[in-house]
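Lab notebook page, bench 4
Experiment: in silico fold of construct C2
Operator: M.H.
Input chain length: 382 residues
Purpose: comparison with the prior construct
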Amino acid sequence: MSRQQRRVIISGGGTGGHIFPAIAIANALKRIDATMEILFIGALGRMEMEKIPKAGFRIEGLPIAGIQRRLTWKNLVLPYKVIQSLMKARMMIKNFQPDAVVGVGGYASGPVLFAATMMKIPSLIQEQNSYAGITNKILGKRVKKICVAYDGMEKFFPAEKIAVTGNPVRKDIVNLETKREEALKFFGLSRELLMEKSEKKVLLIIGGSLGAGTINESIRMNLEKLFEEGIQIIWQTGKGYYEKNAEAAKKFSPSGVQWTDRIKVHQFIDRMDLAYAAADVVISRAGALSIAELCIAKKPCILVPSPNVAEDHQTKNALALVNKNAALMVKDSEAKEKLVDTLLNLMKDDSLQQTLMTNIAALAKPNADDDIANEVLKLMNE
């Protein structure tokens, strides 16, 4: 194998919010240079070990794990796992001889980027959230470049290292306007929705791949009210919430109206491009990837940040949009009382919908994957 071939290590994972951007960056690098060799390094037992090979890339695993928030013996072995992972990461880097190393967040990212910077290999991290995590704040002092999705990240990182690239999103959610009719047909929604003056509206509810308990319960408690308003719903519940929500939808269906005509309950939605295309308003968690998609989709949205994430970064992500009048936010703790009323007010306010659409569209970064890939290439050529 000729050493002219360029090589990159991409490290991180743990959640779809880390894995999808990592794959998008890898694909962008391959578009620029089809001969480039890419190695992923993840955490053993985490979802990247399955998802990355399915995407057509090679991955190796480290025994790293995160600190448990409760008292447990697992925390006692954590220092050993960190040292072991640092040593293994160093060996993997030495064997692969990369020209650059990219960290996207997740357990494996820390030891790999530490080892890479100790070995003087040009390195880059991608910070997806508006509030940097502890590991990335430390790594930010060591790496050469930091790709971010939000303005104002100088409070976490050296300003001269920052490139505002945005977060990579799936390419099929660009130009959704042309997919409206296909989307309504796909979900079996009313064709009246294509009429310009149609008063019927479509609500899309997404809580992440596992669903969101508070969002699901808030909607379930208020189904009767939503039915009375004639709202049609595409509801991604997550696997654990599907049965209960489907049963509730049947119970609250108005007499003479087939509940499945008005509400489409799904455990998981594969065609998110069509879900966004059909929607007039979206209720969503505020993960970095979800927000990046909503900006590209240009949809008025109500964000309900998950309280169960490190440093409460979903609330900070949501506020970054709210402060630019690009989204509405309802706290998770207040969702059962306020979410549906906030939604109904938004559904009836065309002017507010237009304002939110205009402002969220201005935050979109549709070429984030290519921009990050180009930053990686710059590092190689320095």
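Observations: The domain at 7-169+366-381 is CATH 3.40.50.2000 (Rossmann fold). The mean pLDDT is 89.
Next step: discuss at group meeting.
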